[in-house]
Amino acid sequence: QVQLAESGGGLVQAGDSLRLSCQAFGRTFSSNAMGWFRQAPGKEREFVSVISWNGGSIYYADSVKGRFTISRDNAKNTVYLQMNSVKPEDTAVYYCAAQERTWSSRYYYTREYDYWGQGTQVTVSS
């Protein structure tokens, strides 16, 4: 059974840093794109960042560009999201996701991802 397990969420203050981790179990995703999405209360799930299998292609939502950094360690079957200078508007449940394919040019759509984690809550106080 394939499972994506996120960790690292919590309550932080504006301006702080946080690192989320997502480890995959049940199969390897070393040849697949992986991404992060988030969902705030009352809002739709939105794209945050995506990374290709070797880190050669990385994209961010405009709202996090320059503050968040995505990375991966294929030996550990893990993808990370380093969140710096967090803002109250970053408050959301953060989800890790993996594609069955190597890469989708429509990486910002949730439907392009085949596997999802349960999510980890990030709350940023002002």
Number of strands: 11
Net shape: globular
User: Strand fraction band?
Assistant: over 45%
Helix content: under 10%
Helix-strand category: mainly beta
Q: Measured on Cα atoms, how large is the radius of gyration?
A: 13 Å
What profile does the largest beta sheet have? 7 strands, mixed
How much is the average pLDDT?
97
C-alpha end-to-end distance: 40 Å
Number of DSSP helical runs = 0
Low-confidence stretches: none
The sequence of SSEs as H and E is EEEEEEEEEEE
Give structural notes.
By secondary structure, this protein is mainly beta. 0% of the residues lie in helices and 47% in strands. It has no helices and eleven strands. The strands form two sheets. Strands 2, 4, 5, 6, 9, 10 and 11 form a seven-stranded mixed β-sheet that branches. Strands 1-3-8-7 form a four-stranded antiparallel β-sheet, with no helix packed on it. Strand 7 and strand 8 form a beta hairpin. The chain starts with a strand and ends with a strand.
